[in-house]
Amino acid sequence: MRRQIPLVIVFVVGLFGALSYFIMEPVIQDLREQMLTWLRIIAAFALGLGIASFLRNHGRRMTRQVPGWGFNVVAILSFLSMTFIGLVWGIEEGTLFRELFDNAQVPMEATMFSLLAFFIASASFRAFRARSKEATLLLAAAVIVMLGRVLDFDWLSGITEWILEVPNGAAQRGIIIGVGLGMIATALRIILGIERSYLGGE
Amino acid sequence: MELATDIWVWVAAILTLFVYSFLIKDNPLYKFAEHAMGGLGVGYWTAVLFYNVIIPDFWEPLTIAIRKLSMTPQNFDAFMAREGFSQMPQIMQDFSPGVSILLLLLPAIIGLLLFTRYIPKIAWISRFSLAFYLGAASGIAIPNTFQTRILEQLRGTIVQDAPDGSVVPLFSFDAWRDFFAAPGIETFFDAISGPLLILGVVCTLSYFFFSKEHKGILGGMARIGIWFLMIGFGASFGYTVMGRVSLLIGRVQFLLTDWLGVAG
Fold first, then answer.
1. Given an 8 Å threshold on Cβ–Cβ distance, is A120 in contact with B244?
2. For the segment A52-108, what is each residue's pLDDT rounded down to a tens digit?
3. Which of B103, B119, B204, B205 to mutate to test the interface with A (most CBs of A within 10 A)?
């Protein structure tokens, strides 16, 4: 019962979600539109679940005073202050919330990603050894694209654009189609009850 | 050298240095920035989802629907004017107030049921919410994915939109005619681009086709597919590296120009 009801829900709701795309009846389309809103609302509640988990995890470390628990206090205080400021004074341009986001969150995220420039250099050294034909292709494409982004030669920019648009475009398109087919197959497996990992083990 | 006087520039500069301190070794300053970033990120999305989803998609329509049911038409109009609502929410245009309230409360109940996983005795109820979400998302994803990820991509492999708005085939004899009329690097690349793109997509897909052993023609196509994939991965890697480097340049420029005022 506890496992059968979710399977029935998934099947009925999934079938409606898929078929409603093809039925142009206004009532069906309105319900489909409403279903998309429902997904947004449920996702917002799911974020609440994430917040609860975040607070529980950091709170537990804080109360048990595990080594480095001061950083868990920082995480909780940052979360509480950002949420409080956002909910009380709004999130529009020019608010304290926006200032905090633009001058604390954005710089830290940008710096964190720019740190990867250092680590990616050592990763390239290991990845770019021309050991085989395929590795040579990888190396050549990466070097041309990197140089094409830095050096100001028309011919090099032309080659870079061509690599990005044609061979890279073909590979990406193949990957996108492959991923799309995989997504449809997974969705069908979920709707038909073949994929049940979301029910958890029992 | 003119140091910044804006407190926010100092905040951004100090946090930037905290993060860069990781280049020496993992240390408390980096850990502070790391945890602050996590907390601020969760706080940011909480407030953004509250204002962009909970209020417009749930709270406002629910309030309006309840008022519509409980107030006289005159009082309701006055309420709408007082609260600054210029038009009825979409749900109220499609359904009656009673049905709207039901349709708004249901997702909230489904969302709240997710929290039952914190009560071990009734944790299984949260599966209903998860089942609803997964079912709806999967059902909606099937036609949408087919449209955007398969049909559109296949269309882009067969034809392309010309600048004048017309649709031209990707494999064009005109391009080859232009090349033979005026042989050159540019006309050559124009001529081979279309066929190469088609070949690349077909061969890449062949590589991902595992229902038959990669031998003979399929094996050869899969091998060509690997070459295209390698060029694709190399190009993506090079593109990512340059993206990270430009971010690094941006941060150093910020420190030198906006904060220390020694450059720019």
1. yes
2. 999 999 999 999 999 999 999 999 999 999 999 999 999 999 999 999 999 999 999
3. B204
Q: Is B234 on the interface with A (CB under 8 A)?
A: yes
A:B CB pairs within 8 Å: 403
**Residues in a beta bridge with B160:** B168
Instruction: Write the DSSP string, A118-138.
Output: HHHHHHHHHHT---SHHHHHH
The torsion defined by the Cα of A115, A116, A122 and A124, in degrees rounded to 10, comes to -150
What type of residue sits at position B245? V
**A91 in B contact zone (CB under 8 Å):** yes
A5 close to B (CB below 8 A): yes
Residue A159 tokens, joined: 């080659």
Q: What angle do CA B76, B77, B79 make, to 5 degrees?
A: 60
Please give the Cα distance from B111 to A112 (Å, whole number): 33
The mean pLDDT of chain B is 92
Which chain B residue lies closest to A18 (C-alpha atoms)? B139
Q: What percentage of chain B exceeds 90 in pLDDT?
A: 68
pLDDT (0 to 100) of residue B94: 81
Rounded distance between C-alpha atoms, residue A102 and residue A86, angstroms: 13
Nearest-angstrom CA–CA distance, B5 and A20:
58
**Which tens digits make up the pLDDT trace of B204-224?**
999 998 888 999 999 999 999
Mean pLDDT of chain A: 92
Give, rounded to a whole angstrom, the gap between the first and last alpha carbons of chain B.
11
Name the residue ranges covered by the structural domains of chain A.
1-89
Residue A50 amino acid letter = G
Rounded Cα gap, residues B32 and A76, in angstroms? 12
> A202 pLDDT exceeds 70?
no
pLDDT in tens, B53-94: 999 999 999 999 999 888 888 888 888 888 888 788 888 888
Distance, in Å, from the CA atom of A108 to the CA atom of A87, rounded to the nearest integer, reads 23
Query: What's the rounded Cα separation, in Å, for the pair B224 and B232?
Result: 12
**Residues B205-215 as b or e (16 or more Cβ within 10 Å = b):** bbbbeeeeebe
Residues 6 or more apart whose CB falls under 8 angstroms from that of A106 comprise none
Tokens of B28: 């408390």
Chain B environment of A5 (Cβ under 8 Å): 128, 131
Mutate to test the interface with A, among B17, B102, B228, B257 (most CBs of A within 10 A): B228
Could you tell me which chain A residue has the CA closest to the CA of B208? A178
